[in-house]
Design a protein that fits this description.
This is Type VI secretion system (T6SS), amidase effector protein 4. It holds the Pfam family Tae4. It is a single chain. This protein is an alpha+beta fold. The protein is built from four helices and four strands; from the N terminus they run ααααββββ. The chain has a four-stranded antiparallel beta sheet. Strand 2 and strand 3 form a beta hairpin. It starts with 5 loop residues before the first helix and ends with a strand. It is globular. Helix 1 packs across helix 2.
């Protein structure tokens, strides 16, 4: 599957409660659902990949967990192996080789954080939503 452009994905990535996917499930406003929806709006082939996965999905086919979405994105038929990866950043700041890069970032095993972690867009200097550079494991798929 072709990587989406960062600009198209960002246009479709919503963070305001009034703009995001509405679902009858208990967890309608998760980062993974928001990112899943943005990916599908950018390229409908993502929905097929999500529906074909065995990961936890809402009835609309959007993945509900950050690590579940990262696992699907990392499959060879979707985005493939992550471009960059890091362990926890002691100062909570982004690593120097993330600066200037744009893409999807998954923060896994975040201290004192419930759930699978957080997945967000990185615009080259900051997260579009939230960043957790203190997470135990961090993956990035760079986009142009």
């Amino acid at each position: 599957m072709k990587k989406p452009s960062f600009s198209k994905l960002k246009v479709n990535y919503k963070t305001l409660p009034t703009q995001i996917h509405s679902c009858s499930m208990v967890f309608p406003n998760t980062c993974a659902i928001r990112m899943s929806e943005a990916l599908v709006k950018t390229d409908s082939d993502f929905l097929t990949a999500f529906k074909n996965s065995s990961k936890n999905k809402c009835p609309h086919g959007y993945l509900r967990g950050a690590q579940d979405l990262a696992a699907v994105l990392g499959s060879p038929k979707v985005l493939g192996t992550r471009t960059l990866g890091w362990t926890s950043q002691a100062n909570g700041q982004p690593p120097s080789n993330a600066i200037g890069k744009k893409g999807i970032v998954c923060y896994m095993n975040i201290p004192d954080f419930s759930g699978q972690g957080h997945i967000d867009l990185w615009d080259g200097t900051k997260a579009v939503g939230d960043a957790y550079w203190e997470a135990e494991t961090i993956w990035m798929w760079t986009l142009t």
